[in-house]
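Thread title: Can someone regenerate the structure for this chain?

I was given the following input by a collaborator and told the matching C-alpha cells would be attached. They weren't. Posting the sequence so someone can regenerate them.
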Amino acid sequence: MKLLFRVTDETVGSGRTCIAWRPNGNTLAMASANKSVILYDRKGAIIDVLDVTGELPICLAWSSVSELLAIGNNNGNLFIYNHKLSRKIPVLGKHQRKITGVAMTKQDQILCCSDDNTITVSSPDGETVKTMTLSAEAEELKIGEVKRPGGNVDTIVSAVLGKKTLFMSTLTEKSAATENEADNSMNLQFQEKYGNIVAHVWYNDGYMIVGFEKGFVVCISAHPSEMGQEIFSVAEYKTYLAAVAVNEAFGKILTIGDHQIKVREMRELNDIFVIMDVDTEKDLSEVQCSLDGQLVAVAARGGGVSVYLTKMPSMGAAYGDTLAQRSIVINVAIEPSVIAVGPLHIAVATNNRVWIYDVHHYASNQPVAESDYLSTVIDVKLNDEYICVAMDGKARLHRVGQTKA
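Best answer:
Regenerated them for you:
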C-alpha cells in the first residue's frame, strides 16, 4: 500500500476521528474533534466543511443508494446531510443521550444506537418509525444480510452491548416494535480470554469478523443452523486491536493494532496477505475501505487520518484498432476514475469534469478541451465528432469541445 495523503490533528483536532467513505470512493467524511464534519476528495483536498451547530460529532455513515450522510452527536441529535443538494436536516432529540453509532439500510432507513440503551430506526427525513430497547449501552452499530432458504434475504442489525455482548436482530417491515420483537433478537457472548469487544464487521453473506481488545480476531457465522459458531480465531496483536474492516472488492479482511495494518485473505483466513507499519506515534482507532477497495483510511486515536492506495486500478478502453490504458507514461491533469477513447480523442474524467486529449498529439500533455457537468461522470463514449457523458441516470450528448447538448 502507498500513502496517498495524511490529515493531521491540526486540521481535525486532538481526539477521536470517525471516518466513512462515500460508496463511490470519491469522498471521505471525517467527524472531527473540532466539532465539524470535513469532506475530502480522494487526493486530500477539502470539498466542504459541515457545521454541526457546535456539537461534537461522534459517528457517521453514508447511504449506499443515495447521497445522504447521517451524523450522530454527543447530545443525542441526528443530522442528515444531502451531499447532492448541500442541504442539512437537523433532527433534535433523536436520543436522550449520546449517539454512539449510525448505519443506513439499502432502503435509506437510518439506524442509530445510543448510551440510552436503545436503537432507533428512522425514515430518510429523520422520522422515527421504530425503537428497540436494549439491555445495556450500545455501540458499534452495523447492518448485515443473511440469505434464507428459498432465496429470501434478512436484513440484520447488530451492535455491541456493554462491550461484552454482540446483539443481533432482524429488521422487519412493520412500522413499530411488536410484542414479539424479542423473538427476532439474539445476544452472543464470547470467551473471557478475548477481552472486551471493540469492533465487528459483516462480510460474505452472513459471516462476521469480531475484534477484541486483547488482540484476538474471531470469525463467526450468523446463519441459523450455525449461529454464533466460531469458524476461525487468532491472536492477531500482542498489545491491542483497534478496528476491523472488509475489502469485498479484493476479498480481504483488514485489522489495525500495535501500529500495524494486517490484511488476510477472506477465503482463507489463515493466510496473511500483507503486514504494514503505520508511521504514527499515536495508537490507531479506526480503519475504513472505499467500496471499490482502492483506498484505505486509518485514523489515530489522538487525531489525524492517513489514506493509502491499495492497488492501481486497471482501466482502459478501445475503439477499432486504437487502445488507451491508464499508465504512468502519459501524464494527464488528474487521476481519472473514467477513461474513454474514440477515433480521434482520449477522454479522462473524475468527479464532474472531463478532459479530452488528441490521440495523435498527446505527448504535449495538454487537453484540447475541458467540460464540467452537473453531477459525477459515470461513463464516457466518443466518436469522431461527439462525446456522450453518462451521469446520475442521465446522458448528455454534445460535440467535442462544446458543453451544450
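Confidence is low (pLDDT under 50) at residues 174-182.
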